[in-house]
Amino acid sequence: MIGRGLLVLAGIEEADADEDVEWLSGKIARLRVFDDDAGVMNRSVQEIQGEILVVSQFTLFASTRKGNRPSYIRAARPETAIPLYENLVARITADLGRPVGTGEFGAEMKVALVNDGPVTILIDSKIRD
To answer: Looking at 59, 80, 93, 120, which residue is catalytic?
Structure first.
């Protein structure tokens, strides 16, 4: 459980590597999505001393192009995904300067969210333009 901050649903695909983790971690820690005194989204989770919860979420790579049952073929297998997930948690911890919360990789979890805003942002390390 965390207070004010970010819930990061991390989907890891087979094509991901350590450089994706490094880029993504910096982006998450410095993303300016919290209001400043003027009510403008201009502060990062670092600046507000917020918290981060990182939960692995392979279902983000669900493909529904064929049929009605999602395919997760792009999602990384555990032998690839677990080290990258652990690296992501370690990098965000370092970038944030304090520990982050985590889910349990591969476990069935109940995650509740109170979305203030609402602000939901998709960040894809393969699209860095």
So the answer is: 59
